[in-house]
Structure prediction request, 264 residues.
Amino acid sequence: MAMLAVVILIVVALAGLLIYDALRDNPRMASQTRAAPQLAEAREALIGHAKAEWCRLQTGTVADHLPCPDTGTSEGQAAATCAGTVRGRLPWRTLGLPPVRDAAGECLWYERGPGGARVIAPGAAQGAQVRDAAAGAPVCGGNYDPAQYVEGGNDIALAIAAADLAPPSGCAPPAPPPPPPPPSSNPSCVSAANTLLSKVSGNSNLCRQGGNRVAPECTGAANQIAINNCGCRPAADAFVNPPCLNNLNPPQCQAAIASLQGCG
Prediction:
């Protein structure tokens, strides 16, 4: 048993040495290993964004809703449109991420096209690549020329497969629209409605003056409500006419009082 444990330890040690030598002799493999978490983070953010937009708009395919690359109009923001295959930087602001950088400290790049999409870690500059700073990239630095980042043979890419962009099984229902703002109060409507409400005495309507005559101030208030096209106009008309003029107990008269109380 002890001999078996020693053999296992030797095998593990040899495997570790082989991996170390491979990474030491192959800088690109080492770079790929270090960039893997950042590439995966960006890839998942792109997929999540596309699915959320598809749920929100319910149009086209999920792939149609992948954001465009950041092509330099506004750093970190996806371009408004991108026809064909377009390379640019990862639109980290659009995705709600901080700037995502690879092991060389370069912000990630992103390619989107009819054939699919992929996230790219450009790695360190190679050969004739020149990454002089240009206006429009104060956070990530450098410039927006793809040849200086993703065509030097040192870049590492992680593709977004078609299966990753399958429609989600369920989308959260859209948020209900906010309620409309309450209409602004019209002082003339409020004043006229209060005049009528001042004539309420229990179930009695003090606008009535013998027979079915209406007190002048009540007629004036009802006319003022009509002239201003107040929302309580039907209630005012009901208030100064039978049966409400005679008795405020009927349901329609109680409803008229409630409407006058909210008149604005």
Remarks:
- Residues 76 and 137 are 9 Å apart (CA to CA).
